[in-house]
Amino acid sequence: MARIGFVGLGAMGGPIAGHLAAAGHPVTVYNRTRSKADMWVREHGNAAAARPADAADGAELVLLCVGNDDDVRTVTYSDDGVLATMTQGTVLVDHTTTSAILARELAAACAERGVGFVDAPVSGGQAGAENGTLTVMCGANSEDDFERARAVIDAYAVRCALMGPAGAGQLTKMVNQICIAGVVQGLAEAVDFAQRAGLDTAQVFDVIGKGAAQSWQMDNRSATMAAGEFDFGFAVEWMRKDLGFCLDEARRLGARLPVAALVDQFYAQVVQRGGKRWDTSSLVQLLREP
After folding, report:
1. pLDDT tens digits, residue range 32-83?
2. 186 exposed, middle or buried (CB, 10 Å; 0-12, 13-18, 19+)?
3. 204 with 153, same domain?
4. 189 and 146 within one domain
5. Are 237 and 281 found together in one domain?
6. Distance from C-alpha of 23 to C-alpha of 154, rounded to nearest angstrom
7. How many other C-beta atoms lie within 10 A of the C-beta of residue 47?
8. Do 160 and 181 share a domain, yes or no?
9. Which of 96, 117, 222, 262 shows a CA-CA span of 20 to 30 A to 282?
10. Active-site residue 241, yes or no?
11. Full-prediction pTM beyond 0.70?
């Protein structure tokens, strides 16, 4: 069992840390809102820390699961950040979806201190975190650092793969989000079309879900799209953050992402309607109420 420091107990981080505790790892958690950390300890045992640095003190691996690039920098570099107490030979694993630029920056900062680094964004959503069925795509400059991270990631993932050097995990997550953006928009159009045509949407998607059109989004979101239910799942504001990384990286690479850019504009409209916390499947609402 590895001693773990865990920073960030949101919709994803809380369940992930819970799986680590259930697997028998000693876990010290930190959350910006202390009451959430205390609640986690009441449910899972172990300990809560007052600062990220305290959660990292004495840990063999430190895992982050926070909001964005700025949040990661704050809990890493500040005087109270995890690098203030991490020692040579330990490993920092970042589950936050960030820019690839930040991942490479963190890898360099960790290397200066003799600390390993793995960028390890996840896919599978809140349900995947709760059920321990996440897919984790990793970037690391050391295969040994990756193997040490994978040994604990196995507690909550069904797939964990090393995609290349630092930043490769974040780039792979961008590919994932590019795919999802197009699929969700296509599914939204299909649901709206089926309803306007007077079809039984449950029957339609049961039938076509056994063919070439099948996708995770269809299996898990077609029924709730049809019902107009969006108060769950992966929030629109998070998807907009991720698509922003995709579009920025595409400009650096000279790649064209016309569909992703269009869907990002649609999500901006959802936010304007007050839906920043709605599930990403809320794209269908724009079609119902243009």
Report:
1. 999 999 999 999 999 999 999 999 999 999 999 999 999 999 999 999 999 9
2. middle
3. no
4. no
5. yes
6. 10
7. 12
8. no
9. 96
10. no
11. yes
